[in-house]
Write a structure and sequence with these properties.
By secondary structure, this protein is an alpha+beta fold. The chain folds into two domains: about 130 residues, Nucleoside Triphosphate Pyrophosphohydrolase (Alpha-Beta Complex); about 130 residues, Nucleoside Triphosphate Pyrophosphohydrolase. The chain is built from six helices and 17 strands. The strands form four sheets. Strands 1, 2, 5, 6, 7 and 8 form a six-stranded mixed sheet that branches. Strands 12, 13, 14, 15, 16 and 17 form a six-stranded mixed sheet that branches. The longest helix is centred in the middle third of the chain and has 19 residues. The chain is globular, with a radius of gyration of 21 Å. The protein starts with 19 loop residues before the first helix and ends in an 8-residue tail after the last helix. One of its GO terms (cellular component) is cytosol. Its EC number is 3.6.1.22. It catalyses: a 5'-end NAD(+)-phospho-ribonucleoside in mRNA + H2O = a 5'-end phospho-adenosine-phospho-ribonucleoside in mRNA + beta-nicotinamide D-ribonucleotide + 2 H(+).
């Protein structure tokens, strides 16, 4: 697979999280981050500091990679002298090993920053298990990191045309695949069928899982599917879809080369990978 965050490349060392003395070693490599912004050096690389150089903040054990232990410290804002850059910008440029650590850190940091009070009693939460658990000192409720499953699907018809759509918030010409969140009590396949029916009015019979991608903006797990539509007449939900079109492979390439259509960037979102899996190779053009 060829998209960001496609595979973990570090051992998360979950067995060490309960005891700080087991992982806060003198040679610990520490990443400073705030929200989705991470500290960098000149060029597309993360900036790692020592445990003594790390600022005060929420500590996160990331785990082991290539014989070294790694952690992160989440702060409200990364200092300017540490050259903060959004992980979305860095994703296609970073070494896969560093990207694996960064996406783990960003996902947890965003959850920690958004979950500071107990949803049961309102008490301020404290952090446990090296950033992987919040605990309420008043009622004892344990709060674990949240991941929201979302399906993202490449819809094709019986003639193997692909359906691409534009969100109302996107500029003219920007197209991608359909996507939507899974609802409680719903299978992934049913979520694919429901979202396609709601957004563009099509009936889907087969929904085949292909791959997944963590997407911590803020806390999603994108589950990629091929979806076969048995109908082709489009009925758009204008709150979700501004425009949708069927394309053959030749029509898609022609629209891109004529600069009438722009796809998601390569090597970042699973949506681009789904499109190129159908197309049968690389496509030009990116957001």
């Amino acid at each position: 697979m060829d998209f960001a965050f496609d595979r973990a490349r570090h051992d998360r060392a979950g067995n060490l999280r309960r005891r700080d003395e087991l992982w806060r070693t003198p040679d610990l490599r520490v990443l400073v981050l705030g929200g989705e912004h991470v500290a960098t050096v000149d060029g597309p690389a993360l900036r790692w500091v020592t445990i003594d150089e790390a600022p005060d903040g929420e500590w996160i054990l990331l785990g082991d990679q290539n014989g070294r232990r790694h952690a992160a410290v989440a702060v409200p804002r990364v200092p300017a002298e540490l050259a903060p850059v959004s992980i979305r910008t860095l994703a296609p440029l970073l070494d896969p090993d560093e990207l694996s650590l960064a996406i783990h850190a960003v996902g947890l940091a965003r959850w920690l920053q958004a979950h500071t009070y107990c949803s049961r009693c309102g008490e301020y939460l404290y952090t446990d298990q090296a950033g992987h658990l919040r605990v309420c000192p008043s009622c004892g409720t344990e709060h674990y990191p949240r991941t929201d499953p979302a399906v993202i699907m490449l819809v094709t018809d019986l003639d193997d045309r692909v359906l691409l759509a534009r969100n109302p918030r996107w500029p003219e010409g920007r197209f991608s695949t359909l996507a939507g969140f899974v609802e409680p009590g719903e299978t992934l396949e049913d979520a694919v069928r429901r979202e396609v029916a709601e957004e563009v009015g099509l009936v889907v019979d087969e929904a085949t899982y292909l791959a997944s991608q963590p997407w911590p903006f803020p806390q999603s797990l994108m589950l990629g599917f091929n979806a076969r539509a048995t109908t082709t007449d489009l009925v758009l939900d204008p709150t979700e879809i501004a425009e949708a079109r069927w394309f053959t492979r030749a029509e898609l390439l022609e629209a891109i080369e004529a600069e009438q259509l722009v796809l998601p960037p390569p090597k970042v979102s699973i949506s681009r990978w789904l499109i190129e899996q159908w197309y049968g190779g690389d496509l030009p053009g990116a957001w």
